[in-house]
Amino acid sequence: MDAVKNTYEWAPLRVVPRVDRGECVNVGVLLYCRHEVHLTIRLALDPARLAALAPDLDVEEVATAVHAWERTVAGEGPAGVLSVGERFRWLTAPRSTVVQPGAVHTGLTADPDAEADRLLARLV
Fold first, then answer.
1. Is residue 1, in this structure, part of any structural domain at all?
2. Number of domain units in the chain
3. More exposed terminus of the chain, fewer Cβ within 10 Å: N or C?
4. 78 located within any domain
5. Is 73 within 8 Å of 91 (Cβ atoms)?
């Protein structure tokens, strides 16, 4: 018997060194499954890729900003009062910063964590 699949939403997490140019490097994936009340993030920050795109970029500063997303996903800080769904919506809202989400997409999965791993491997 097949496992029950639930809908999920996901968005790539990207670094846009120069917002005016629009060039980006995917550095992670956010995944939200409402039915399982599950929000997860997977990160793979590659300093060499970032340096190739923007040699003058402060990679340590970017890494700090990227890891702040992990803390928000975990419900730390001011985001701790938000529900899992509210955190996902807040994180995926458009913004003009160096670290920003891509477009939100949907899918079906029986295992949100495995799906997040698959998306990370495919996109980053």
1. no
2. 1
3. N
4. yes
5. yes
In 22-49, which positions are buried (b, 16+ CB within 10 angstroms) versus exposed (e)? eebbbbbbbbbbeeeebbbbbbebeeee
Residue-number span of the structural domain to which 12 is assigned: 6-123
Tell me the C-alpha distance between 28 and 124, whole Å.
Answer: 7
Condensed to tens digits (0 to 9), the pLDDT of residues 55-88 reads 999 999 999 999 999 999 999 999 889 999 999 9
Query: Is 35 contained in some domain?
Result: yes
pLDDT for res 1: 59
∠ CA 56-12-72, rounded to 5° = 85
Burial of 121 (0-12, 13-18, 19+ CB in 10 A): exposed
| CA distance linking residue 18 with residue 39, whole number of Å | 29
